[in-house]
Design brief:
Distance between the termini: 35 Å
Number of domains: 1
Largest sheet: 6 strands, mixed
Helix content: 10-25%
Number of helices: 7
Shape: globular
Mean pLDDT: 87
Length: 197
């Protein structure tokens, strides 16, 4: 399968760590006010989008199905993207362990103004497409943090999300966001949920 170490990655610039384009970031999206009501929080200019949270036992084929439904990486240049990584300083407050932001060259030029026309045309390919990059990130994080709550102490996850090591223990899970389907900007992050007894 995919090897995360083959990806060309760079640190996520501070201006992008906590800033999000939306789930949907067209020119009219600012008219769509944020809400805790999921019916009102859908992107106004895109059919697909949003945030999902899931456990670490997701099978590859199921993740690929979800990504297809969200229309992630379904372009013919899905290997031309930047990969930004950022580790949380205080995971409990920030809500993640590590986040990976993927920005297609289209988003780099037209949403983020990070590259010019020449850089767009000559943007280098990554060794895998966007979907495989998501899977590679998950595999890397599973290896690092383990896949069961009894790994929390041995792998260093214990206490990072408020667990007490006894009746509330951390288990690795993930979040995924279609930040802008149009500009092909996506995030995936590792997190933990508390297994209670």
């Amino acid at each position: 399968m995919s090897d995360f170490n083959k990806l060309k990655t760079m640190p996520l610039p501070k201006k992008y760590v906590a800033s999000f384009n939306g789930p949907g970031s067209g020119m009219y999206y600012k008219q769509n006010k944020r809400s805790t009501n999921p019916f009102l929080n859908a992107p106004i200019e895109e059919a697909e989008g949003g945030v999902i949270y899931f456990g670490n036992d997701v099978k590859r084929k199921d993740l690929m199905s979800v990504l297809n439904v969200l229309d992630v990486g379904n372009t013919n240049d899905s290997d031309k993207y930047a990969v930004y990584l950022h580790d949380a300083t205080v995971p409990l407050e920030e809500g993640y362990l590590q986040q990976m932001r993927i920005v297609n060259r289209f988003g780099l030029q037209f949403a983020m103004d990070e590259i010019d026309d020449n850089e767009y045309e000559n943007y280098p390919s990554q060794p895998m497409d966007v979907k495989d990059a998501f899977w590679a990130f998950m595999e890397k994080e599973k290896k690092k943090w383990g896949t069961h709550f009894w790994d929390d102490k041995k792998k260093g996850l214990a206490g990072k999300f408020g667990g007490n090591g006894d009746c509330a223990r951390e288990e690795l899970s993930f979040g995924l966001m279609v930040e802008s389907g149009y500009h092909e900007i996506y995030r995936i992050w590792s997190r933990a949920w508390l297994v209670t007894k």
